[in-house]
Amino acid sequence: MASDDIWILGIRMTKFGKHPDLDTVDLAAEAALGALADGGVTMADIGVVAAGNLMGGAGGIGQQLQKQIGQTGVPVYNVQNACATGATALRTAIMAIKAGECDMGLAVGVEKLAGAGLLGGGGRPKGDKEVYEPRGRYGAVATTDGRIGTDTMPGVFAQVGMEYGHRYGGTSFELFAKISEKNHSHSTLNPLAAYTKAMSLEQIMGDMMIAYPNTRPMCSANCDGAAAAVVVSGAKLKTLSLEQQRRAVKVSASVLTTDPWQEACQVLPDVNTLTRNAATQAYEQAGVGPEDLDLVELHDCFATAELVHYDNLMLCEEGGAVDFFESGAPWRDGAKPVNVSGGLQSKGHPISATGIANIWEVCHHLRGEAGDRQIDGATVGLAHVIGLGSACGVHILEKSAA
Amino acid sequence: MAAQVPLVEYLVLGDDPHLEANECTSCQARFFDRRNACASCSGTEFKRVDIPTEGELRSFSIVAFAAPGVPVPFVAGIVDCDGTSVRGNVINTEPDPEHVSLGMKVRLATYVVGTDDDGTEAIGFGFEPA
Ligand SMILES: [Zn+2]
Question: Is A194 on the interface with B (CB under 8 A)?
Fold first, then answer.
């Protein structure tokens, strides 16, 4: 390990699902204490904390967590970056280490979402006299959601997938449902997933339509959960035990991007260009190519999104995502397993935890600790998240040579 | 006839309803909202340009589940109006995959969205099969 490398020393995710008796701090603490124990270190070793939470309201989750698990006086960064919040927290801790401010950091992401609707948005308060007056940047006199397209995530990402189909052909309701069938099947081997039941194509296609072509099981599952990681510099890792060195996972690339302007990005968020840019930078940083990846955890917030990211992450030729899927490659016994955790559709999507949870999955395969769903011999993996706004995080991870 | 206002400022009413965009004078990027500067080149000069009223449906979703008060199902769409992408519902057709297809030709159409307590009508727009 080179002294300027970054390594994941310890990592943990909670069971995703419903946790009515635990608050965000409980969940964050479970993940953080778990990651510290996994790495064989304590809060006294940590030089920086970066924490993410989107829906918890006021109050820095990082300091709230510190007060429960160790007020050591180190700097805390509270980060928010939509669904890329967890990846952003990790990246923040990595930057602090790369800047030489400390040699070990803790990143945490937590969210309580069980029972939350799929949607944001909403109308104006009722009661007042209604008089049409232009408001906001579009000078709208009334609610535009539902009248000028949709503001809902299922609808937006449905359009993302359909746009791909229009450009390259080959997509259908059934094809998108088959992607969901794969992920629900994969989740049966993941005891920490929110849902662990396989679903047939008929069940998936016959379920409640949310936003065509996405039915309910094709949408990410709202749930509670947290994930945390301890990151360490290569120089510090050399001073730790051989067992810690053996289990450490190398962060070969850590990249965060936003979407560059292009025609149409104002009317439909462009989730493609920023992902392609992040992947390009990550492959270059890591010195590996998509052909070297043994597994990929990508941001399948909807079945329609998974398809476009096969292409954006260059797992296939440009325009080749449908053929890539139909070849069987992204199934766990295929040439390029994707979302063997079950993905956001069945593992679940506690927003701020997701970025670190995707990395948790990859790390466990690289360590050979993924149990029944182990991808044999995995040495390189990629974790991807995207948040609308937009932000994209890509991390490439490699098994330790030690 | 009741007084009418457009649902959004970029919809121009009258005999020939159409959409207008703010076009950056240095890079020609087009925006429908009020701008501080251009997202593409950071220029600060814009001119108003008319958007063609006919286009091709480049993407859509049939939204069946939405926030309270939003009538469902409806067809959310992205329309390519001769190189300018426009967000708008597909209207005046059945909201199902048999009646809406990728690449279909559409044209701008307006309709009354609602009436306020002063009797003023809000006029919205969508795209109907051409
Ligand atoms: Zn410009």
Answer: no
How many Å lie between the alpha carbon of B83 and the closest alpha carbon of chain A? 8
Centroid of ligand 1 to alpha carbon of B28 (angstroms)? 6
Tell me if residue A325 falls in helix, strand or coil.
Answer: helix
* Chain A partners within 8 Å of B31 (Cβ): 266
Compute the distance between CA of residue A181 and CA of residue B46 in angstroms, rounded to an integer: 48
Count CA atoms within 13 Å of residue A339 on its CB side: 34
Q: What are the Cα distances from residue A317, in Å, to A117, B31, B42?
A: 36, 32, 34
- Partnered with residue A113 across adjacent β-strands are none
What is the β-pairing status of strands B18-24 and B30-31?
antiparallel
Give the model confidence (pLDDT) of A289-336 as tens digits: 999 999 999 999 999 999 999 999 999 999 999 999 999 999 999 999
Q: Provide the ipTM.
A: 0.96
Q: How far apart are CA A196 and CA A192, in angstroms?
A: 9
Question: CB distance from A201 to chain B under 8 Å?
Answer: no
Chain mean position to CA A349: 8
**Interface with chain B: mutation pick from A118, A132, A167, A216, highest number of B CBs within 10 Å:** A132
